[in-house]
User: Fold this.
Amino acid sequence: MDETEVLIAGAGPTGLVLALWLVRQGVKVRIVDRSAGPGTSSRAMAVQARTLELYRQLDLVDEIVEGGLRNPAINMWVKGERRARLSFRDAGRELTPYPFALIYPQDRHERVLVRRLIDAGVTVERNTELLGFEQDATGVTARLRGPAGESVCRAAWLAGCDGAHSVVRHQLGTGFEGGTYQHTFYVADVEVSGPAANGEIHVSLEDGDFAALFAYDLQGNARLIGAVRDAEVREGHTLAFDDVRQRAITSLGIKIRQVNWFSTYRVHHRVTGHYRVGRALLLGDAAHVHSPAGGQGMNTGIGDAINVAWKLAHVLRGQAPESLIDTYETERKAFARKLVETTDRAFSFVVAEGGFADFVRTHIAPLFASAAYGIEPVRAFMFRVLSQLGIHYPDSTLSAGSAGHVHGGDRLPWTGYGGGPDNHAPLAAIAWQVHVYGEVAPALQTWCAGRGIALYRYDWCDACQAAGLARDAVYLVRPDTYVALVDRAGERDTLEAYFTERGIHPV
Assistant:
């Protein structure tokens, strides 16, 4: 019987990122996937700013950004005219080092993650299927079928990153509540020319139709999504690109030179009942699926992986009780439910039919979006939502305190805009750390040194104030770069009590 600490079922971005973050923390992993190799189509395209920030932890971000296309704006078109242009740079430049949506096809993305994992000494076991598993108080015994036949693997934890049809979820019986939209949609990788082939995102809203174009280079290669004509969706008919609705595509003024890949799908919106049952966990599409509105799916799965990776490492190393893993569901399920609701409303609006819906979509929405985006707080809010910078965990048992505009559970704000210090640079260490913006009490320095926790002090500046931080307050930062505790008084006893109450030994 083979043994490992964490067995990962599924080698998409979620499973690969989980493996990378675990290996970086010294955890032994096996990762299996029933496919013969990484994906060969673009699939998920957008890598959001929050994901890029987290990729700094493994020195991944530069390679990913250089390989993709920095998309600076979303354009809204109606009846052949561009009615609004929403700039990411204007909205996000003060919030993150990555004020753009990076368009990076999933097949290229996966190849980078696979190569980094090989460099770390782990190879994805291809053509290997998880058949089932049994678990007890100390771990999971999984049955696998690979090229050499069936085998058994014993693991302390099983991570189900095996997609919407998850074997792990089905065996756990955690359900998958939600529904399916009645429309059939298409996705195509195309080569285009025309005014919209300029490296930006373009959304075309028409009476009874919509289309979205995502460029992934400046040579006219792009992802196109939209709806299939209902009349063409019938039993026995194989859908092709000629069956898609054309009005919204025509309104973009693009000429499609070639269709390199075409597929159709039904959109689901579902969330599983539990993310954890015993020693088995669900991540990514195995736990939640939703409409592709906003490019959130893959990024949410990656966020799941990074959230639970440090918690698994702590438990496996005896640095925290097993109950720490329960915070994974508390934190990520709340966000998934909110995301499904938000994307459901956005998608329902885009595909709604009827005269009134058409009027709102083609006349009111572009005017409202343009006007609202001109208001700085609204612009920043919209960017936070789209980029996932706004994800926070206020109800987690790991979150406590507040100072300035920052609460326990928030992402640590970035202070690097306008000449301020890049306070995200130390976050590359997957470790607990303390940040102070202003003066540090000697007793706190002594406590951090004795605990082996890195202490970073920054001079108070305008950028710190603009980021919502409080002068001289203490910010205890989790290994996944979220603020765990905010203490305005900066007392070492408050930090000591935080760890004692939760049974966590940070080093």
